Amino acid sequence: MAFCGQCGFENPEGAKFCGNCGATLIQLTTENTPVKTAPPTTPIETPPTTPVEAPPTMTV
Ligand SMILES: [Zn+2]
Q1: Which residues are placed with Cβ below 5 angstroms of ligand 1, an ion?
Q2: What is the pLDDT of residues 48-57, one digit of tens each?
Q3: Contact assessment for residue 2 and residue 12, using Cβ atoms and an 8 Å cutoff
């Protein structure tokens, strides 16, 4: 679809001129679309896994 920049008429794909007002249609390419920059993902700080040493149960 090529929308006319002058009148907004919806022209068929590949149309070079607006079928309504005759204005030159500018083919909008998707190359100039700004890339959505994802927000910096903060890495989840995982605490160092300290081996849990079982306390000696010999305390009597
Ligand atoms: Zn037009």
Answers
A1: 4, 6-7, 9, 18, 20-21, 23
A2: 888 888 888 8
A3: yes
